[in-house]
Amino acid sequence: MKHLLLVYSSQSGHTEALAQAVAAGAAESADDVELRCLRADAAGLEDLLWANGLLIGTPENFGYLSGLVKDFLDRTYYPAQSKVTGLPWAMFVSADNDGSGAVRALERIALGYGWSKVAEPVISHGVPDAEALRQCRELGQAMAAGLGCGIF
Question: In this model, does residue 30 exceed pLDDT 80?
Answer without folding.
Answer: no
